[in-house]
Amino acid sequence: MIPKVIHFCWFGGKSKPRLIKDCIRSWKRHLPDYEIIEWNEGNSDLSHPFVKEAYDLKKWAFVSDYIRLKALYDFGGIYLDTDMMVLKPFDSLLINTCFFGAEDSEFISCGIIGAERANWFVKISLNHYDNFQFSKELNLGMHTIPKIITDIFRKEFKYYDNFDEFAKFDNLTIFPPEYFYPLPFSESENVKKYKEYIKSDTLAVHLWNSSWIQYSEYTYLRKGEYKKGFEIVFENIVSEKKISWKYIRKIGSCIKESIKLKKNE
Q1: Measured distance CA(52)–CA(58) in Å, rounded
Q2: To 10 degrees, the CA torsion angle through 198, 92, 70, 207?
Q3: Is residue 179 over pLDDT 90?
Q4: At 238, is the secondary structure helix, strand, or coil?
């Protein structure tokens, strides 16, 4: 069983904006018997080389990527991004040994993660960071935690399908988008209308307030943020020194999707 503990990260020392405070209040309202732990500079072990370098560079998102996994591995519980608005109790989730939510059909997101203490999948995810080094040439967009977790999941379970439905292996569950990400990133400008996106299965809504996070090229292109999207595409081509037709087709599909969304506005 996953213990009734909520973990969240807050690095950098800035005061929490109103939306973040509202989200934390929603946790307390719907999860009254859960312990809530804030991980920050005062109680986090920042000695891991990846964390130390990310912290020195003020890459708070990357500090949080590691610390959230470390907290779950050491203590178990449920990690929440600070912009996750909870709508219903989480008790039905506790029977899993580990769970994530998909943000769309292609990517597992990490705005909510649940795990028992010392979970094996969390451990191999942590191990990914042991050989990670920052450099001027490094494309950070290729190393966001959703990409890392999605790649590890597909490799471990040889899973090549999409995430529109439940994906379950060894009591590790990937919930489809409507459970935690009913508001797509491509429509995040409608955050004030998030209630219109809620489905009957929705337990929480990610409000996409973490502007310091770099998302994938696909996410930016679907949203119509072509400059950011193509910057990552260009970096990928340069770093990989090759490009596949499959990659080109995915880029084209995202652009078509963004055009379709704009026509429907």
Answers
A1: 10
A2: 10
A3: yes
A4: helix
